[in-house]
Recover the amino acids of this structure.
């Protein structure tokens, strides 16, 4: 899957702490109608969030950048896993 041209919509479920890691599901939908969304199981460790805060990284911008990079990978299938670093 690659990012389609045009608007991309992200829908995120509530972040939940699972086994010591924050986790949620993100659905990515492109502008084409009838194409099922790609789902990402998104994970981020508390220590990663603390590090971002210490070095003043905006977590929303960083997550968006890492999701964008993740979606450029080939053969992701209908669902993939992304652990934010």
């Amino acid at each position: 899957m690659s990012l389609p041209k045009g608007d991309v919509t992200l829908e995120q479920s509530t972040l939940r702490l699972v086994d010591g890691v924050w986790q949620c599901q993100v659905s990515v939908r492109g502008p084409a109608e009838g194409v099922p969304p790609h789902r990402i199981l998104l994970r981020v460790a508390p220590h990663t969030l603390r590090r971002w805060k210490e070095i003043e990284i905006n977590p929303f911008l960083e997550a968006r950048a890492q999701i964008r990079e993740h979606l450029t990978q080939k053969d992701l299938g209908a669902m993939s896993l992304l652990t934010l670093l």
